[in-house]
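Lab notes, practical 5.
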Amino acid sequence: MGALYLHIPFCISKCPYCDFFSEVGQQQQIDDYVEQLKRNIKIASTQDSQPLSLDTLFFGGGTPSLLSVNQLADVLRCIVRYFGINPAAEITIEANPGTLSLEKLKGYRQAGVNRLSLGIQSLDDHRLQQLGRIHTVAQARESIISARAAGFDNLSLDLMFALPNQDLLALESEIAELLTFKPEHVSVYGLSYEEGTDFFLRQQAGKIRSCDEGLYADMYLLLHNYLVAAGYNHYEISNFAKPDSLCRHNQVYWKRENCLAIGAGAHGFQDQHWGKRWHVEADLNHYKECLIQGKDPVKLLEQYDRDGAMKEYAYLRLRTSKGIDVQEFYRRFGLEFQDVFAPAILKTKDYLYASGQRRFFDVNGWLIYDHLISNFI
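Output from the prediction step:
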């Protein structure tokens, strides 16, 4: 399975909670960056062990929907030229409702994008302003309606929870409305205060009070119960999908499969010699200089040994409802899961379930995932 992640690091404004690599970009910068992306694609295609044809592509950011239809189509043509895209490939673009129009969405769909991930985040205007989002609730609703009109039948909606001063009734109202749009996929993210972000600084200064653990748990379970009752499969800690609508690209990450990365700040993985992770320099000037000189702008982050690979495998797989298949674990690593992780299994026995060859956490385990998984890594 060939997977490709492309990072578009530009935003109209920086959200105060976001710690992803992004910059407030002008149109000329974006135009120039698209040319660098095409150079990056060409250079990456000459490297060893790259997929000959792609099954999943994901445009992430930043705000990829700042790309014009022509720019997106140009990048996709370049990918087809140097890699190839399978006819049944999943091609996703993340989009901000404040950057969309029906015309643009139709253009994206005609260019080949078949999965749209909309950063709705909230259906309350006050909370959207609080989060520094550029769109309104009206624009969020309109973007969903326009996406359907443009022909998108695989739609993912993001919703944030545990926001400052948010209560259960407010969250219930938002998830209830979100479900009226019948998305194929829903991602839910609890607000976190990452070091280096504006929200982190405000929290440290006592200007924002974070959600307490009890309320956070109640909110997470409310979302779980609402979505499962509506027919969604809670297939990963933060992700829910209708049957046959699981995000294929994200499953590449959780299965620890090969993923090529293109664009400044992008991260990739190769499943060779226990695996290696690498990233593209998160510096636009350095990125451009490397590509102009014909150099591959990637840097090795980590080369794994077997011990590190087993720990990461457990960390990623236990995030999913399928969990770990102990036979697959043995095929991959030549060791028995229960032998390698005997102490961790004992410490998490009240949350780690067994069903046939599977070992997995349920939603109650996911609530304290960081605590539980620390025993495995």
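Observations recorded by the TA: The chain has a mean pLDDT of 92. Residues 27-45 form the longest helix (19 residues).
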